[in-house]
Amino acid sequence: MDILIARGRASAAEVQGAMADPPSYSAVRATLRIMEEKGHIRHEREGASYVYLPKVAPERAKRSALRHILDTFFNGSPEQVMAALLDGKPSPEELDRIAAMIERARGEGR
């Protein structure tokens, strides 16, 4: 899914080629078929092959992935996520932008 979102569209061979440690071509095709059956992607015929496209908007996919990471690795805690991110030594400019986002969230009554 990451590859399709980044590229916008890709054939099974292109998806396989973009993977770091790719499974077989058949496994990639099977996974794409399952993703299509679940409604995450769709395909278009292009010549003799299929090209796959995400059905989910990139922004929605980002939020869904982040929610999954938050729940899986950080017990649903934004505070734990921020602590982990701050270990990465953000720049002063990034810290200023993060502080501004926090202030906006406080002002919105979150």
Commentary on this structure:
The protein has 110 residues and is an alpha+beta fold. The protein has two domains: 2-54, Arc Repressor Mutant, subunit A; 58-107, no CATH class. The chain has six helices and three strands; from the N terminus they run αβααββααα. It has a three-stranded antiparallel beta sheet. The chain starts with a helix and ends with a helix.
Briefly, what is this?
The protein has 110 residues and is an alpha+beta fold. It has two domains: 2-54, Arc Repressor Mutant, subunit A (Orthogonal Bundle); 58-107, no CATH class.
Keywords:
single chain; 110 residues; alpha+beta; Arc Repressor Mutant, subunit A; 2 domains; three-stranded antiparallel β-sheet
Q: What is this structure's SSE topology?
A:
Layout: H1 2-7, E1 10-11, H2 12-18, H3 25-37, E2 41-46, E3 49-54, H4 58-73, H5 78-86, H6 92-107
Antiparallel strand pairs: 1-3, 2-3
Helix pairs in contact: 2-3
